[in-house]
Design a protein that fits this description.
The protein has about 220 residues and is of the alpha/beta class. The chain is about 30% helix and about 20% strand. The strands form three sheets. A three-stranded mixed sheet has the order 3-4-5. A three-stranded mixed sheet has the order 6-7-8, with helices on one face. Strands 1-2 form a two-stranded antiparallel sheet. Strand 7, helix 7 and strand 8 form a beta-alpha-beta unit.
């Protein structure tokens, strides 16, 4: 599964010359922690976060902090370009979602922009990753059946079950080696492209007694 498969495509953005205050208003209104900053050609040039907008914008209460006139920090930047982070962590649309998830954990990110030739194509958030992870088993199996039928053209030769995102694929009809092994590896790879799949097990032994994929989904107990 790739980043483009789960990303949010309609992204709220701001420009470098947007006021920092307005960027803060947008984040507060939509509940965002950060906003991508793009130029007139939709190229990603930075990211502005809540902390960037807050920095140096809350004047100290003079009753609590005694200082001489003119002492202290200068006026805060009024524009996004003056507060944004320019070194942005981003991923390509073809990035493996597993790598994106690892990036979130390792760098403690809440979202990451998705780019296509430096232009913003979408954004992946923790919520997007979670949605992909918790897809119902029935939806996962439906998607897998389509892929299996498209690749093999023969659903009658396969039994497919899904339990808590764990996919089990078993052949119900035998074909000569090495074609069988190649086909089984291909189906396992296809299954891993589907959102919500946690693991894939391909049972190489042919079992003609179990229902084919055209029938009802076999229960987990049948593969115990």
């Amino acid at each position: 599964m790739q980043a483009r498969d789960i990303m949010t495509r309609e992204v709220v953005t701001v420009g470098p010359d947007t006021s920092a205050k307005y960027a803060g208003e947008v984040m507060a209104e939509h509940g965002f922690a950060a906003l991508p900053v793009v130029d007139d050609e939709e190229r990603l040039v930075g990211i502005v976060a809540e902390a960037d907008v807050l920095r140096d914008r809350m004047p100290q209460d003079p009753r609590l902090h005694l200082r001489r006139d003119g002492e202290g920090a200068g006026p805060p930047s009024l524009l996004v370009r003056g507060v944004m982070t320019r070194d942005v962590r981003s991923v390509e649309g073809a990035a493996d979602v597993a790598d994106v998830a690892r990036l979130f954990v390792d760098d403690r990110l809440r979202s990451v922009p998705v780019v296509d030739r430096d232009r913003l194509a979408g954004i992946v958030s923790r919520r997007d990753l979670l949605r992909a992870l918790i897809r119902p088993d029935e939806q996962i199996r439906h998607d897998l059946l389509r892929l299996v039928e498209g690749y093999t053209g023969d659903l009658d030769s396969w039994s497919i079950s899904v339990a808590d995102g764990r996919v089990t694929i078993q052949r119900t009809r035998g074909i000569p080696e090495p074609s069988a092994e190649v086909e089984e590896r291909a189906l396992a790879a296809l299954a891993r492209t589907i959102g919500g799949v946690v693991s894939v097990q391909v049972l190489t032994a042919v079992d003609p007694e179990i229902p084919s994929a055209r029938g009802p989904a076999p229960s987990v107990a049948e593969h115990a």
